[in-house]
Write a structure and sequence with these properties.
This protein has 589 residues and is an alpha+beta fold. 36% of the residues lie in helices and 25% in strands. The chain has 18 helices and 28 strands. An 8-stranded mixed beta sheet has the order 11-15-16-23-20-19-17-18, sandwiched between helices. Helix 1 packs across helix 2 and helix 6 crosses helix 14.
Length: 589
């Protein structure tokens, strides 16, 4: 490596650095607790871990002691030396480490068995590593967690303890990382979802099966109504289709061959096999096929907020951001080849219009293509792929949309435009997508009568603007930290009577605001006003309407914003107008 490659901007160096840290972690544990048996210790996307079999549970205090020992090892500047051994000698060397013995026995006969030695510690490893433990900055190491992990990912095997860590070349880089991690915890939609009463999960219902509580479902309905109204104005026709389909439906579409591992197992009912649907396109293909079409009727835009199910690995589940049940803001546009450009343009316009309403500004567009070196997971038709990729690339270029290209990220049936957002914390992910498909229409024998009377196969655009409503909601929760703008807030106003005497007047205010279409609650509890205000602020309610004797006399309301700003007294009509403007303009706050 050249000198300028010894930086964390270089992924290979970063991975090597963290891999070396995992060995330093293992050495520190063996020094402090020789009875611990070692499994594996790789670098990962954000740091490193080591799996261990210990006769005790690692505590936070123990992790602190291990960190201190790791710093000592760094100061010792131990040289990392690679060596190789024949199989029998390797087994003899690792005879007291049963997990290493198993790994050696599972290696192919012709594979080199290599080790790395640092001081008194030797570990089975293919490398690579830094040349010395002194290359690692000891005071920039942090052990972050200890969780259970199955040996080799098999729930029928031993349960190990996995110690996670992170490290950087400089202490201030670690401090910045830990600061961001704390912010991520504060923004975590799972934490806020519990605190704000938006959704819940329970293992008795099933992992990855979230349930929306009244306030969460209110927000969910706001999003559903918002996007459906946008779509209706653009000529979309909304449908409702079943959450299951026959295996033969997915064999026809190709999903059974290309997507089976992500689907729930088939259910056998009356000599038919059914599956929970992972996506909605096959159902919408059948709706199009239900009757003949002329070119005059195209484009046909079929939309649905549809319940889908995918068998995600339990380790990847994350609240409502990644679940086994979710609802897609899905649509399929059946178009002629000549309509591709205008319809893709309309989809892009809708995406960017929606992002403007939600004040989403940090995003990038990605043209996701097939990997020509790995065609197994894609529909096998080179001509179709060349045609589809060229068409979508040309459309995006003609529209003046800036995009990057990523190989291997296409859907199995065609290329797609993904719009990836960069959240306040964490890695970017896809919210919206528009996919170009020449494949499924042919598989389902879809046709339309063209101008010359011949039957032609339509092209299909698969598009999702909000993506899944669940993931979009998770994004909003984390971006706003639960302080939704007034138009989205499940409760927009909390009316707080100062005394019991003001209770009836508070109900009148609530009735007027409710009649105007706002979501309002009254807090009639016999608690101090300051307590009620703090609780309403904790629930991130945009406006608090305080009513007391003076308000009753003057027929006014005293308004406080959740930020703590006192907006003063005003007439009820003035407050309705203030709130109406905030809602109608979709003001950020």
């Amino acid at each position: 490596m050249a000198d300028n490659q010894f930086t964390f901007e270089n992924e290979q160096y970063r991975r090597t650095y963290w891999h070396t840290c995992s060995h330093i972690l293992a050495q520190a544990v063996k020094r402090l607790h020789p009875e611990v048996k070692l499994a594996i210790g790789p670098s990962i996307e954000n740091g490193f871990y080591y799996d261990m079999d210990a006769p005790f549970a690692f505590t936070g205090e123990m992790l602190t002691e291990i960190e201190a020992e790791m710093r000592k090892i760094c100061k010792e500047k131990l040289k990392l030396e690679r060596f190789e051994l024949p199989r029998e000698e390797a087994l003899e060397l690792m005879k007291n480490e049963p997990y290493k013995v198993e790994l050696i026995n599972d290696l192919p006969e012709d594979e080199v068995i290599s080790f790395y030695k640092q001081g008194e510690f030797t570990d089975l490893c293919a490398g690579p590593h830094l040349d010395s433990t002194g290359r690692v900055k000891g005071n920039a190491i942090k052990l972050t967690a200890c969780n259970a992990a199955y040996w080799r990912g098999d729930s029928n095997r031993e349960t190990l303890q996995r110690i996670y860590g992170i490290a950087f070349p400089k202490k201030d880089e670690l401090d910045e990382y830990l600061k961001k991690q704390e912010e991520a915890k504060m923004r975590d939609h799972r934490k806020l979802g519990r605190e704000l009463g938006l959704f819940m999960t329970h293992d008795l219902v099933g992992k990855g099966m979230p349930m929306f509580l009244p306030k969460g479902y209110t927000l969910w309905q706001i999003l559903e109504n918002y996007i459906k109204e946008k779509e209706r104005k653009l000529g979309y026709q909304h449908v409702l289709t079943p959450c299951v389909g026959t295996v033969n439906l997915y064999r026809t579409s190709g999903h059974w061959d290309h997507y089976k591992d992500n689907m729930f197992p088939a259910m056998e009912v009356e000599d038919e096999s059914f599956v929970l649907r992972p996506m909605n396109c096959p159902h919408h293909m059948m709706i199009y096929a239900n009757r003949p079409h002329s070119y005059r009727q195209l484009p046909i835009r079929i939309g649905e907020v549809a319940h889908d199910f995918r068998f995600e690995a339990s380790g990847t589940l994350k609240g409502i951001e990644r679940a086994r049940h979710f609802c897609q803001n899905d649509a399929h546009l059946f178009v002629t080849p000549e309509q591709i450009k205008s319809e893709v343009a309309a989809v892009c316009d809708l995406i960017f219009e929606v992002y403007k309403d939600f004040h989403i500004t940090d995003y990038r567009c990605v043209l996701s293509l097939r990997d020509p070196a790995d065609k197994v997971k894609y529909h096998d038709d080179d001509e179709m792929w060349d045609k589809a990729e060229t068409a979508l690339r040309e459309v995006l270029t003609d529209l003046g949309i800036e995009f990057t290209e990523e190989i291997g990220e296409a859907a199995f049936y065609g290329p797609k435009l993904d719009v990836n957002v960069k959240p306040a914390v964490g890695a970017e992910y896809t919210l919206s997508t528009c996919q170009l498909d020449f494949c499924l229409p042919a598989k389902f024998d879809l046709t339309y009568t063209d101008t010359d009377g011949s039957d032609k196969t339509p092209v299909v655009l698969h598009r999702a603007i909000l993506g899944s409503l669940d993931r979009f909601m998770a994004y909003l929760i984390e971006e706003t930290m639960g302080a939704f703008p007034a138009w989205l807030a499940p409760v927009q106003v909390k009316v707080l009577p100062v005394t019991d005497r003001a209770g009836e007047y508070a109900d009148q205010v609530e009735a007027k605001l409710s009649a105007a279409g706002f979501r309002v609650e009254v807090d009639h509890r016999s608690e101090k006003l300051g307590y009620k205000i703090r609780e309403a602020q904790g629930q991130k309610i945009p406006y608090m309407v305080v009513v007391g004797d003076k308000d009753m006399e003057n027929n006014t309301v005293s308004i406080r914003h959740r930020s703590g700003k006192d907006l003063g007294a005003m007439s009820q009509e003035e407050f309705v107008a203030l709130l109406r403007e905030a809602v109608d303009t979709k003001a950020a706050d």
